[in-house]
Design a protein that fits this description.
Blueprint (H helix, E strand, L loop, with lengths): L7 H8 L6 H9 L3 E12 L4 E3 L24 E13 L5 H5 L10 H4 L2 E6 L2 E8 L15 E11 L4 E6 L10 E13 L1
Antiparallel strand pairs: 1-8, 2-7, 3-6, 3-8, 4-5, 4-7
Length: 191
């Protein structure tokens, strides 16, 4: 190939082409699907020491969560290249106020920063129990706020349960309206 080389998460996704299901590979080759940058996100209230960011009873709702049932839609494959984790305190627990929350870095949420995060897809670890302190990036001026770039990107296929969980050692210092914004950045197959 003498053309320009792909960059970023697209180049990472091309390395995983062999792992894609045959129907998705075929649709990409035919031009029925293409690769696109995306962010899969969810906002959840910190109401216990275990916060499941994607749950099977979730439904897609703009500004709150952009996947239903903790799964990708049919014929989509998503390569997770990075994760963002932010927190904020909403004015109240109404949906509008939650969406209008000023989400910020974990530096102002010590109990969250000392917690752990893990990400699984189809019960396979993508990011094992890892300190949430990796999302404290306010002093790293060349990184987006609350962003962690995965050294080992992983593929999530359609109809596979996505489990992104934040575990807290303490709930000390949290206001009742504290929410977490979690986002997975990467490349997805799309029509």
């Amino acid at each position: 190939n003498t053309g320009p080389h792909s960059k970023g998460s697209r180049a990472e996704m091309e390395k995983f082409f062999g792992e894609l299901p045959p129907n998705i590979k075929e649709a990409l080759v035919k031009g029925e699907l293409r690769l696109a940058d995306t962010v899969i996100y969810s906002i959840k209230q910190v109401s216990s020491k275990t916060i499941k960011m994607f749950e099977t009873q979730d439904s897609k709702s703009v500004g709150i969560c952009n996947v239903s049932n903790a799964k990708l839609p049919k014929n989509q494959a998503f390569l997770v290249s990075g994760i963002s984790l932010l927190a904020g305190v909403s004015a109240d627990l109404t949906k509008d106020k939650i969406m209008a929350t000023n989400f910020a870095g974990l530096e102002g949420f010590p109990a969250l920063a000392t917690g752990e995060i893990n990400l699984k897809a189809n019960k396979k670890q993508i990011l094992p129990e890892t300190s949430c302190s990796i999302f404290k990036t306010a002093n790293f001026h060349m990184k987006p706020l609350g962003y962690y770039k995965l050294a080992n990107p992983r593929l999530i296929l359609d109809d596979v349960l996505i489990e992104l969980t934040v575990e807290l050692g303490t709930s000390d210092g949290f206001q009742a309206n504290t929410h977490i914004f979690a986002a997975m950045h990467g490349t997805i197959t799309t029509p």
